[in-house]
Amino acid sequence: MPVVSAQTAKAPAAAKSSTKAPAKTSQNQLTTPAIESRVNALLAKMTLEEKIGQLVQYSAGAATGPTSGRTDDKDMIRKGQVGSLFNVTSARATNELQHIAVDESRLHIPLIFGLDVIHGFRTTFPLNLGLAATWDPDLVQKTARIAAQEASAAGVRWTFSPMVDIARDARWGRMSEGAGEDPFLGSAMARAYVRGYQGEHLDAPDSIVACAKHYVGYGAAEGGRDYNSTEISEHTLREYYLPPFRAAEQAGAATFMSAFNSLNGIPTSANPFTLKQILKKEWGFQGFVVSDWTSVSEIMAHGIAIDGATAARKAFLAGVDMDMQSNLYHQNMLKLVQSGKVSQTAIDDGVRRILRVKFAMGLFDHPYVDESKESGAFLRPESVAVAKTAASKSIVLLRNESVSGAPLLPLSAKVSSVALIGPLADDAGNMIGSWAALGRGEDAVTLRRALKQKLGDSRVHYAQGGNFLDATDSDISAAVTAAQSSDVAVLALGEDAPSMTGEAASRSWIGLPGRQQELLEKVAATGKPVVLILFSGRPLTLPWAFEHVPAVLAAWYPGVQAGNALADLLLGDAAPTGHLPLSWPRSVGQEPLYYNALNTGRPATDPDHPAEKGENKYVSRYLDEKSTPQYPFGYGLTYTSFHYGATSANAKEISVTSLQQALAAKSKNVLSVSADVTNTGSRAGETMAQLYARLDGTSIAMPVRMLKGFQSVTLAPGESRKVTFDVDAETFAFWGAENKFGVEPARVTLWVAPSSSEGEPTTLSITER
Ligand code: NOJ
After folding, report:
1. Model confidence pLDDT, tens digit, residues 562-597
2. Which residue owns the Cα nearest ligand 1 atom 11?
3. What letter would DSSP give residue 511?
4. Residue 77: in which H helix or E strand, if any?
5. Among 52-66, 435-449, 542-556, 634-648, which stretch is predicted with the lowest mean pLDDT?
6. Counting beta carbons within 10 angstroms of the beta carbon of residue 655, is it exposed (0 to 12), middle (13 to 18) or buried (19 or more)?
7. For the chain, which terminal residue's Cβ has fewer other Cβ atoms within 10 angstroms, N or C?
8. CB of 58 shorter than 6 A to ligand 1
9. What H or E segment, with its residue span, contains residue 645?
10. In 3-state terms, what secondary structure has residue 262?
């Protein structure tokens, strides 16, 4: 049996990295002596008004803030009263405004143009939750690089991405924009985005500045209701919510965005503990913090300021350097400095950070873009090819039961006709998902188009079956008729991306909207085999489907190549490789649901059974629902099967002292953990080997499992391979009861497994000395 280590496996960077791994690029890029001296020279020339101008950002179309009623944005740029604009999206428009700033303002300071380029600029890649489901940071980095090339061609050199919020509650609509529930996977994705956007050199004309958002805890909104308050202990913050931000910062993210939520009573856009203490002091972040849209003025609604001047002061002194859209720095900062409530030194620090980024990204040296090259940068064939790979790899096969003796998917090449049904079967606009920057539905290939291309018009019987929320009886009966006259029915159901996912799209009930469940059941009642493709920005609770529908795919929103990627998977020209970046709930009452939970003092001995099965009642569980998810974090099927052998490690004991030394020396390999993996099916295939750890006996309770590594393994039918993870000391380090990061004596359990609920573990000890 060949022995292959993590280094030679497909995703070595991810397998070997950790949430605190050393960065490739770093904050050092922002603070070279040359940059600092240019910043200082410019600062020395600036008036207080000009300095305050750098702290101000407006959106195009609401140029001087929602409360001002002013539209003299160009005049403000001329006077040096604006440091940044966003939502300006073409080379012509960015150049025009940049010329005003550079040619007509006294000190010629360029504007930095921002935009939400979150899963592509014109070439739309899968929505971010789908990108996370690839478990392929290298691929995600490629998508971010392409997004940077396209955005920068339009003069947009700053993206408000990546969103690295940990999301444990599927009711929260913005789960769709992030990487799911896990800090290790989330950190790998955070690094990938930052490296892709910022490239090797931040000052390259095709690099764009990344912005890690929403700092911090936004994903923990109580009840999953957007903008809601959060209560997160310092331990939980440091152990779970901060690591992806730290990873982004260590990868060199030049900006951060403060969030909408309050954290333990203090709004995160006025929170000195998270912004000043942790981000700027502990981590040494040298870039700048922008507020979220009007989050500075929302401090008043939160209740810790009763006027705009106080809100501006609290936000700024807490560490928010740039005011997005509130208009409050512009209106109040001069008086705040003149009255001594905000010091000149504090202003200089904020302005220095913004200028530092502008210099580091080369904006002073090349402020304009070549308008003639703009459109040529969009939708290049090689970019569209990456979009297809990303779409294919983002789709997770949840269920594939046998029909007439064989798994339903892939569909046999002999299938003579397919009924294609559902509101998402031919909706190009939805394929690009929510918040798609300059993405256009017309660029996207729907499943209907792709299937017709592959099978020919006459073999695809299409019936929409009604819309997301409305369907008539005749819509449904047309779909049933289409199914009756076909060999197999493929249903494309789910959420309407623009209205039901993303910001302000929390849902208290997360089943199929409208009459889609009824449509599904009626089509299934024809007796024709059904493939259900779910398009959604969150897991949907569909207990009936997961019991009765033989094949189910979670497609999220796959982007411009949606249809082509799906058609290949359906017909077996490609095999699914996606894995869940979250725990898929059985019912909404289980939320928040996440695999890396604490054990409790009374764990259910059989969490897969609710109380009526006769278990001890007095354990942590529901009376009327299982405690386990429908599908666990890390899960995903493919067209072959794999067997994972027992996990083994090359030591039974490691001392705290040796781990501490390894931590200090940042040594890479303190332990090797392996398992034999065998392809037990008849087709070559790819599995995602995942390394999980658990620590017992520690000063603070740690989760039942924590992801610590992952690597993709491709095996021929019948082939076995020893999959090895080289584990570093950080794998065993955590934030202890005193909120210090380090290692402690513990019993360690380790699993190499295909998901968070499988695997045969091994144990070892971390001993005192
Ligand atoms: C509000 C959103 O919360 C944030 O993610 C986004 O970057 C800003 N609006 C700007 O569009």
Report:
1. 999 999 999 999 999 999 999 999 999 999 999 999
2. 116
3. S
4. helix 73-78
5. 52-66
6. middle
7. C
8. no
9. none
10. strand
CA atoms of 568 and 576, how far apart (whole Å): 10
Q: Could you tell me if 744 and 766 are in contact, meaning their C-beta atoms sit under 8 angstroms apart?
A: yes
Distance 694 CA to ligand 1 centre (A): 36
Question: Residue 699: what are its φ and ψ, rounded to 5°?
Answer: -70, -20
Secondary structure of residue 83 in the 3-state scheme:
coil
C-alpha separations of 212 from 146, 333, 537 in Å: 18, 26, 20
Residue with tokens 């869940």: 580
Q: What pLDDT is stored for residue 66 in this prediction?
A: 45
pLDDT tens figures, 739-768: 999 999 999 999 999 999 999 999 999 999
Judge whether residue 547 has pLDDT over 50.
Answer: yes
- Ligand 1 site, residue 503, Cβ cutoff 6 A: yes
CA 173 – CA 660 distance, rounded (Å): 41
Residue-wise pLDDT tens digits, 220-273: 999 999 999 999 999 999 999 999 999 999 999 999 999 999 999 999 999 999
Q: Identify the bridge partners of residue 112 per DSSP, sorted by sequence position.
A: 84
Strands (E), 106-179: 112-115, 158-159
Asked if residues 158 and 147 have their Cβ atoms less than 8 Å apart, the reply is no
Residue 7 has pLDDT above 80, yes or no: no
Contacting residues for 412 by C-beta, under 8 A, at least 6 apart? none
Establish whether residue 329 lines the binding site of ligand 1, counting it when its CB lies within 6 angstroms of any ligand atom.
no
Q: Place 631 in a pLDDT band, splitting at 50, 70 and 90.
A: very high
Quote the ligand 1 centre to 457 CA distance (angstroms): 42
Residue pair 514/467 in contact (Cβ under 8 Å)? The answer is yes
Q: For ligand 1, say whether the CB of 116 is within 6 Å of any of its atoms.
A: yes
The alpha carbon of 298 and the centre of ligand 1 are apart by a number of angstroms equal to 14
Please provide the average confidence, as pLDDT, over all residues in the chain. Answer: 94
Question: Which has the closest alpha carbon to 154: 93, 82, 85?
Answer: 93
SS3 annotation, 568-589: HHHHCCCCCCCCCCCCECCCHH
Residue 503 neighbours by CB under 8 Å, 6+ apart: 173, 174, 226, 435
510 CA to centre of ligand 1 in angstroms: 24
Residue-level pLDDT at 317: 98
Atom of ligand 1 nearest to the CA of 259: 3
Structure token digits, residue 682: 């008849």
Residue nearest to atom 7 of ligand 1 (CA): 160
Residue 545 has pLDDT above 70, yes or no: yes
Q: Of 5-9, 51-55, 399-403, 668-672, which gets the smallest average pLDDT? A: 5-9
| Ligand 1 atom with the shortest distance to the CA of 260 | 3
pLDDT of residue 9: 30
The pLDDT, as a whole number, for residue 769 is: 79
Taking the centre of ligand 1 as the mean of its atom positions, its distance from the CA of residue 292, in whole angstroms, is: 6
CB atoms near residue 591 (< 10 Å): 20
- How far is it, in rounded angstroms, from Cα 44 to Cα 42? 5
Alpha carbons 736 and 746: distance in angstroms, whole number: 12
Over residues 12-71, the pLDDT tens digits come to: 333 333 334 334 456 667 999 999 999 999 999 999 999 999 999 998 865 555 445 566
* HEC assignment per residue over 521-558: HHHHCCCCCEEEEEECCCCCCCHHHHHHCCEEEECCCC
Q: What is the DSSP letter of 110?
A: P
Q: Confirm if 162 and 212 have CB atoms less than 8 A apart.
A: yes
- Is any atom of ligand 1 closer than 6 Å to the C-beta of 676? no
Q: Is ligand 1 within 6 A of the CB of residue 292? A: yes
> Which three-class secondary structure state does DSSP give residue 766?
strand
Q: Return the active site residues.
A: 292
pLDDT tens digit string along 354-386? 999 999 999 999 999 999 999 999 999 999 999
Q: Is the beta carbon of 174 within 6 A of some atom in ligand 1? A: no
For ligand 1, atom 9, which residue shows the shortest CA distance?
A: 293
